[in-house]
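#onboarding

Welcome to the new folks! Below is a worked example of what a typical request in this channel looks like: someone posts a single protein sequence, and someone else replies with the predicted structure as tokens. Don't worry about understanding the tokens yet, we'll cover that in week two.

Example request:
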Amino acid sequence: MKKKAYYVVAGAVLALVLAIVAVSQQTPTHKIVFHMNTNGDYAWEQALRNISALQGVFGAKNVQIEVVCLGPGLRMIMKTDKRYQERIEKAAASGVVFAACRNTMRGMGVTEADLLSVDTTVDSGVAECVRKEEAGWSYIKSGAEQQVDPATF
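Example response:
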């Protein structure tokens, strides 16, 4: 009888361990929200490089990234600006979410049809960043308006 109970307990423990391993492999370990409110090549280049670096270090399957585009940063994901479209689409294909602020869209007269097809919309860009931080995501303020000489840091 004791031997049977031992096997039942051992089986339950093994099932629990396998379930934990399965869930941990499905859930990204790192969750990062990028706050992009800057328009310009240097800012966008830095954001895309940072995304690539995070995916390279942690592995694309181990990182969940959302880029919240608001204010002047909305232009990064508009169809009218093709400079970064291919790289944005590649990032989106790897799981990166690009979120457009509907407040900014209204202010600029932009519709969803004006955005790249990889995008989603959020009610407020800053509120989305707050929600992500409250949910435990890491926050990165992305982009500088101009290149800074590393020697001047």
